[in-house]
Each structure stands twice: as structure tokens, then as C-alpha cells.
Design a protein that fits this description.
This protein is of the alpha/beta class and 393 residues long. Helix content is 36%, strand content 12%. It contains 13 helices and 12 strands. The chain has helices spanning 2-10, 28-35, 38-50, 66-82, 109-130, 144-151, 158-166, 190-197, 212-222, 237-240, 308-320, 368-378, 384-392, and strands at 86-90, 171-174, 179-182, 228-231, 248-250, 257-260, 266-268, 280-284, 294-297, 323-327, 346-349, 362-364. A 6-stranded parallel sheet has the order 5-4-1-10-11-12, sandwiched between helices. A hairpin with a 5-residue loop joins strand 6 and strand 7. It is globular, with a radius of gyration of 22 Å.
């Protein structure tokens, strides 16, 4: 659980994650961008108000039956073939097949947290009813002294100190991998325990390899079939699959990317650079002639403004598009969730319901890898994986 859980643990405590997560303090530039899109805002609000499931986490995953799926995939293939300008918007669902848990799914990070919190409350109520004095002694963890030592700064990195105080689950820092993980596996939900034991959950982002979807997107962009990709993910798997940075917008930052505060040069590393909310990483820029500016992480916290260039590019690309395909995103995090409304047509590929299902030209409930594989075959690109591997070699 180190990868997604580690990133989730870095985020500030934010109760609105179980509802539609609007930025609580939008910047003036953010407001200005959307003043020109009043109609889109109205559509979005109507979608939210009319959607009774908006913002809930842990919703069931609904797989289309084979007959319906075949019909919908044929329709998607038709839309792709007719499109002159296709843009993709990706979310956590494109990375779940690599072992990285999502956030809102049945076994997602926030879903698991919610289940654990309910279990803790139930246990607390039961303990209080048994113990009339109201003492909570039995609820104190057995490793209480170790936790206190960590929270006082004993062995925890500086950037994790403030986060650990807010977390309900004790965490530790792996000094070799620089990633946060649960140090109390007994409290991990059974579903996640099984995935851990089966080694289907990676230890850290460094251990993860791009999925079929990541590779397919890179292949399609390289051949100009897809014009642009926008991602809300921080795992860096698009770039690690070979997708050019100029061909995709990274809206929420990347755990592998640090950026110079002086010249703006980005450095894509093969390790998690650590930090959250643009903290200094301790490294310097080596850009000629001799910038020597401080490098900072690129990961956004809840109230941070989106990177201006990436956000502007994302809006422009969706406005140009006659087709936007959203892959594995709940479309519940703003402002990215409204981007598909800028296109002439948009398709939602997600196993759970989203607030924009009714507005979409097509909604497909299926694994994104299965959908992308069908698209590649329909376009006559059989054997594309072998071809891509040969080019990499």
C-alpha cells in the first residue's frame, strides 16, 4: 500500500474528499478562466444537483454484460475513427491494473479509510458501553511509545512530521525507498491484506510498470491518432511509458518530478522526490550556464493552484477536441472534472458512476485495459505491443 497510500498520507486532512472535491480557495486565475465558460459551469452544477450519488466513495463497480459491451465498444470505435481531434483524460483507474489502488473504488484508499474509521467508531462505542468509566485504555495501540517517538521527530523525515499527527493510522518512512507505508498491517482491510500477500500491491511507485493503457496511449499519440493526453495521476506512468512531456498535461503534479524555482526546468527522476506542496527537495538546478536554483516537488495539496501552463494547455486541447475520452476517472475532482464538457463529444470509461454519465455521448462500464485493447485492434494495430517494444529496445 506504500504507493497510493503514501501519496494519500502526504495530503492534508480534507473531509470534502468524500463529497465533490471543489478547491476550497480557488485562485483569481482559476476564477477568471471559468468566467468565460459560464455555460459549462451551469451544466456542471446541474449534473451535480441531479446526481444523487455525487461524491460518494466505495460505489459498486458495474461491468457491462458482453452483449451491451460489444455494442458500446463498436460505437466507441466509430467515434474514434470519425474524430479529427481526440484528447484523453486519465484518472486513477488507468493504473489499478499495475497494482496501484485507486481512491474511490470498492478497495480504494479513501474507501478503506472510511471503512476503518467506521470500525474504529463502532469499537469505541462498544468499549465505552462495556467500560462505564469511559476510559479508552484498551484502544491505545500496543506500539504507542514508538508512535509517540515518531511524532516527536525520532525517525521520521521532516516533511512527514506534520502529516503523521493528522493521520489516524500510524505510518513509518522506509529509509531505502523514501515511501510511506502502513506499519500496522493487522489493521489493514482483509481485501488489501490479500492483495499485499499476493504481492499485487507494489511497495512503492518505483516498483510499478506502465499498464497496457499507458503503453497504448503513448503509441496512439506517437502516431498522431490521439492529439493530447491530460492526467490527474501523480504516478508518472505516462512519462515512464515514453509519452512526451509536450504531449500531456500533468494537473496534480508527479512524485518523480522536481522543478527549478528559478528557470522552471523540470527534472524527471527514477525515484520519488518526496515532499508535498512545492517544498524544496534539497537538490539544485544544473541548467546551463549555471542556474543553481532550488528544486521543489510538484505535488499539489488540496488548496494549491493547478500548474498554470498545464491547466491552460488542458483547457485549450479540450476546446479543440471533437472527442474527449475519459479513462478511469470519477470526474469528481474539480476543476479537471469539467474539462470533457468543453468538447463536442465525450465518452466516459469508468466502472463506477460519475456525475457526467448522463451528459456523455457514451458511457462504458469496463476495465480500461480491455477498452484500449479493443480500440487498438479496431484501428488495425494488432501487434502494436511488440512493435513498441522493438522501438524501445
Amino acid at each position: 500500500m506504500a504507493s497510493s497510500a503514501g501519496y494519500a498520507n502526504r495530503l492534508s486532512k480534507y473531509d470534502n474528499k468524500v463529497r465533490l472535491s471543489f478547491n476550497s480557495s480557488p485562485s483569481p486565475s482559476f476564477i477568471g478562466m471559468f468566467e468565460r465558460d459560464y455555460d459549462i459551469i451551469c451544466l456542471r452544477l446541474l449534473a451535480v444537483l441531479s446526481h444523487t450519488l455525487t461524491g460518494r466513495i466505495g460505489l459498486p463497480e458495474i461491468h457491462e454484460n458482453e452483449r451491451v459491451l460489444k455494442r458500446k465498444l463498436a460505437k466507441l470505435a466509430e467515434l474514434v475513427c470519425k474524430s479529427k481531434y481526440t484528447v484523453l483524460l486519465t484518472g486513477a483507474g488507468v493504473s489499478t491494473s499495475t497494482g496501484i489502488p485507486d481512491f474511490r473504488g470498492p478497495t480504494g484508499i479513501w474507501t478503506s479509510e472510511q471503512k476503518e474509521e467506521k470500525a474504529r467508531k463502532k469499537k469505541k462505542q462498544k468499549s465505552t458501553s462495556v467500560n462505564p468509566t469511559g476510559s479508552q485504555f484498551e484502544l491505545v495501540p500496543s506500539n504507542f511509545r514508538d508512535i509517540q517517538k515518531q511524532r516527536s521527530g525520532g525517525e521520521v523525515a521532516e516533511e512527514e512530521k506534520s502529516a503523521s499527527v493528522e493521520q489516524s493510522e500510524p505510518v513509518a518512512l522506509d529509509p531505502e525507498r523514501n515511501s510511506v507505508f502502513y506499519n500496522s498491517p493487522s489493521k489493514m482491510p482483509d481485501s488489501l491484506k490479500r492483495r499485499r500477500d499476493e504481492k499485487s500491491v507494489p511497495l512503492s511507485f518505483e516498483d510499478v510498470k506502465p499498464s497496457l493503457t499507458h503503453k497504448a496511449i503513448t503509441f496512439l499519440v506517437d502516431r498522431d491518432i490521439v492529439k493530447f493526453c491530460i492526467t490527474q495521476n501523480v504516478d508518472g506512468l505516462h512519462q515512464r511509458s515514453g509519452l512526451s512531456r509536450s504531449k500531456h498535461a500533468v494537473l496534480h503534479g508527479c512524485v518523480f518530478t522536481e522543478k527549478c524555482e528559478e528557470c522552471g526546468k523540470e527534472y524527471f527522476r527514477d525515484f520519488d522526490v518526496g515532499g508535498m506542496s512545492f517544498k524544496k527537495t534539497g537538490r539544485k538546478c544544473s541548467e546551463a550556464p549555471s542556474c543553481n536554483g532550488d528544486l521543489r516537488d510538484t505535488i499539489l495539496d488540496w488548496d494549491d493552484a493547478l500548474p498554470e501552463d498545464d491547466w491552460k494547455n488542458a483547457q485549450e486541447q479540450c476546446s479543440k477536441a471533437d472527442l474527449v475520452i475519459t479513462l478511469g476517472t470519477s470526474l469528481r475532482i474539480e476543476p479537471a472534472g469539467s474539462l470533457p464538457l468543453k468538447a463536442k463529444h465525450f465518452v466516459v470509461v469508468n466502472l463506477q458512476q460519475t456525475p457526467l454519465d448522463k451528459e456523455a455521448t457514451l458511457k462504458i462500464g469496463a476495465d480500461v485495459d480491455k477498452v484500449m485493447s479493443h480500440i487498438m485492434n479496431t484501428l488495425g494495430l494488432d501487434g502494436w505491443e511488440e512493435e513498441k517494444q522493438e522501438n524501445v529496445d
